Amino acid sequence: MKSAIPFVSTLLALSLGLTACGGSGDGFQLPGATGTALPYELMSKVDNAEKTEIRNGSYGSSMAPHPTREGYFYGLSDRGPNAATEAGRTPSGIIFLTPSYTPRIGLFRLTSEGKAELVDTILLKDPKGRPITGLPNKSFGSTGETPYNLDGSVVSLDPDGDGIKGFDESGLDSEGLVALKDGTFWVSDEYGPHIVHFDATGKEIERINPFAADPRNKAGRVLPAELSTRWPNRGMEGLTITPDGKTLVGIMQSNLYNPTKEVGSINLTRIVTVNIESGAVAQYLYKQDAAGLANSEIVALSTTSFLVIERDTKFYGIDTGTIRKNVYKIDLSNATNVDRSNASLRTGKAELTVSAANGLLVNGKTLELVIKDAGTANNFAAGWSQLAALGIQPVTKTLAYDGIAAQKYPHDKMEGLWVIDANRLGIINDADFMIAPDGVGGVKQKYLYDGKVESNMLYVVKPIAPLF
After folding, report:
1. pLDDT grade, residue 7 (50/70/90)?
2. Above 50 in pLDDT, residue 319?
3. 282 phi and psi, to 5 degrees?
4. What is the pLDDT averaged over residues 263-279?
5. Phi, psi dihedrals of residue 385, rounded to the nearest 5°
6. How far apart are CA 319 and CA 345, in angstroms?
7. For the purposes of burial, counting CB atoms within 10 Å of the CB of 387, is it exposed (0-12), middle (13-18) or buried (19 or more)?
């Protein structure tokens, strides 16, 4: 990509569909740093001693401003109320408290008091118009997770009617959201990963994933195969589109298990760009501040400049040690395209080869193994130096917002961003339907450090420096 021409605030706002208003004169008010809670409804109560409430309203996996209506924004749910099983369960898997739950997009309106009202819900549907579920895929995008009911039995639901119980080939663990002016949506997920295009009613139009054999992919439209080695439940967590509307940009939540899970946890994640018209792809490396962190959102500022969330899963006031809830401004201009389609990168470098399954290799090793095998000292510095010696540079990053330093951000999962204008940034969290695993095969209520039950909150904060 070429360097972007600087935008003035008004031009950028128009090109991205941002709302730069928010005063009492325009009919709505943006909440401040104290935030506003998104509404919810009680789905059910768990029959345990606590009577844990499952609250339908977790629209915090991603957010996007409505592209034409000021004061409105979209929120995205994930695969539904779920929890990890207890350690040692065989086979390992995920507990689905409501297996029939359909991932959805919520349209919210801000009131003149700065409150968020849910005004519409769009259920995601397969190409036949059937509501999908959040159950895992069996073929194209399997994570190896066994779906369990809360009572320990294996889920028997067959939502896509293919005779394979407990799985849904159109199922999504939806995490990234793009809302377009034509009323359609692009959604990325953590299974395949899949990037799926839905019409205004939520019906699937098309998809892009790493599986060339999947007939749902258009010819020439496929993600790099190595992305299918994503760490289960840590797939394509963030998705955006460039202001010109030509390129989808997704970010993986964590490092790939490329080629196997023996890679473990390192600090290399990947950004992928897809030209919607041609299908051409590129990949860029992102260097996390520490291994095991999560990149849970990406939002475009220009064709090369983006905001990215980098966070841990700790709670302020509950967990100990360093707690990270950061937003970084990144730039791809001087980063290296490491996709195997970039033949010029390999010119004159015998060390660099490519694999159809695992992408760019260095002396036969995947990029992930280069980082791992060089050692963990100084945040994997030796591995990154090896890549730099071959002309491979990650994206540049500058801290744009520190949620802990600025507001003692109380939630574990900062996951959605809304660029309102150069000096205002909306942040939303994933509340996990207000439940958490109890460690023994069940669930418990999810609480914050102040004793309050977790909730989906929208905060509007000021970045460290103007965003553009």
Report:
1. very low
2. yes
3. -140, 155
4. 97
5. -65, -35
6. 43
7. buried
Q: Which of 123, 125, 200 is nearest to 160 (CA)?
A: 125
CB 271 within 8 A of CB 250: yes
The continuous run of DSSP H or E covering 360 comes out as strand 359-362
List the Cα angle 317/323/326 in 5-degree steps: 120
Residues of the chain with pLDDT > 70, as a percent, come to: 94
Contact 446, 435 (CB under 8 A): yes
pLDDT in tens, 159-190: 999 999 999 999 999 999 999 999 999 999 99
How far apart are alpha carbons 66 and 55 in whole angstroms?
25
Instruction: Classify each residue of 283-309 as buried b or exposed e, where b means 16 or more C-beta atoms within 10 Å of its C-beta.
Output: bbbbbbeebebbbbbbbbbbbbbbbbb
- Please say whether the beta carbons of 388 and 368 come within 8 A: no
Q: What is the pLDDT of residue 326?
A: 98
- Evaluate whether 233 touches 95 at the Cβ level (below 8 Å): no
The DSSP-derived string for 119-162 is: EEEEE-B-TTS-B--SPPPSSTT---PEEE-TTSPBP---TT-S
What pLDDT score does 308 carry?
Answer: 98
Residue 25 scores a pLDDT above 70: no
Pairs from 358-365 (Cβ < 8 Å, separation ≥ 24): 358/225, 358/226, 358/229, 358/258, 358/259, 359/224, 359/225, 359/226, 359/258, 359/283, 362/386, 362/387, 362/390
d(CA 72, CA 374): 48
pLDDT at 26: 57
Residue 354, C-beta contacts closer than 8 angstroms, at least 6 positions apart = 340, 346, 360, 361
pTM above 0.90, yes or no: yes
90, with CB counted inside 10 A (0-12, 13-18, 19+), is: exposed
